[in-house]
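quick one, two chains, predict together pls
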Amino acid sequence: MADTPSPTSPTPDTQRPALAPRRFRMVCAYDGTAYFGWQTQPGYTSIQETIEQVLAGIVKAPKVDIHSSGRTDHGVHAKGQVFHVDLVTRMTERSLKMALNANGRLPPDIRILSCREVSQDFHARFSAHGKEYRYYVWNTRILPPDKRLYNAHIVRPLDVEAMRRAMQYFVGKHDFAAFSANPNRPIESTVREIYAFTVTKRGSQICFRVQGSGFLYKMVRSMVGFLLRVGAGQEKPESVADLLSPGTVRTARVPSAPAAGLFLWRVWYA
Amino acid sequence: MADTPSPTSPTPDTQRPALAPRRFRMVCAYDGTAYFGWQTQPGYTSIQETIEQVLAGIVKAPKVDIHSSGRTDHGVHAKGQVFHVDLVTRMTERSLKMALNANGRLPPDIRILSCREVSQDFHARFSAHGKEYRYYVWNTRILPPDKRLYNAHIVRPLDVEAMRRAMQYFVGKHDFAAFSANPNRPIESTVREIYAFTVTKRGSQICFRVQGSGFLYKMVRSMVGFLLRVGAGQEKPESVADLLSPGTVRTARVPSAPAAGLFLWRVWYA
């Protein structure tokens, strides 16, 4: 009768040692078209909430909280968003990933690319060392229907060389206050470091790639928005330097490029 | 008083000579995801009906009939579908095309790529000399969200060389009865000619290209469906020859590949 609780032991429920939560680091890709951005907001469908609800169903928890490397806006896509989550489960990394991607679980516009158990000191946001974003522009008169969800459409022919000259000013450590739309939240510092910024053109598609230590709210779309004005001949490449000088605030010269062209490409860690 | 109708003339409405209808040949591209196929069907949104309604609004006609090179099924895309239409209008080719593509007219998942006035003996279907279709497959474990609308997803690694051997049997004039799903309509002949059939792989994407004189209902998806079975090792390449022998009817060995991977690529004329 070894399985019968002894009178001195607590209630049977606590007989089995409670499982400690395990931390998982997951990489996900999504098509942001149908979502109101990453972050959960009452009344809107978010990517975060969609993943949390599916995960809760899989591990049979009433609620699950996931923590991403950062938000993405309404309509912005990701090829390699990273989040961590603490789960009380005996499932393996592989079975968790497969369960999330299974039919009837996550919708096909969200996919889990990898799942790895990590130590409790890993944090998707605070442990991140840098991020890469890519921004795609379709630069012809007519935007092909199958490209419309993943490219901004600019009819006017863009001067790639002028944009290339302009983007060099962004590289390095600068105050990006003029390239951020602050949605009413205090920011400690608007200084960020850009490691690399390149632009390539292949056929009708222009691809901007930017890597940096971190990015302010709407910073990538603001930088690209200004570069597109440079490419259209409405601004000089050197004007970037003025806008990066300390104390400069956001002006109408810095529009946000449309969400559809933007992909959070990857997040890297030590 | 030259403008006053004389008593002997008919009603003022017929004073101005009625404009003769002009025939236009248009090339269009569409993302078929949101449509119930090309052809108008009561209760469903079709590409044909969408274009007809916008065109009627532009030329201020109560109704406009467009005639395509052929139908495409629910969820199938086009890069170069061709249709003709007779319009009573003074608009130029260019202004018609621009009006159709303008904001608030055609939705962004349908674009008019070209518009050209043609003689009355041009017919988008009967004048066509051949067509090219392309079929895209994403062949990895996980289908990236931004590829899901324009590729079929096959997890099992496909043997491209085996599919290449199999597709050679399709080239030439054959009875394709086994590769057509007949939706209860009589077909005069199930003989068609395939001019070329190729397959290429780039990264995770496999692209089938097929050119022919014409195609039976679901013929491309049926051929690709069988090729995918060959690629997965479930059928031998030589089996195509058996299925093309006269009198062979469709069997469960010939499944239709999913609609999402299929594009009507172009239609050519003399």
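The domain at 18-118 of chain A is CATH 3.30.70.580 (Alpha-Beta Plaits).
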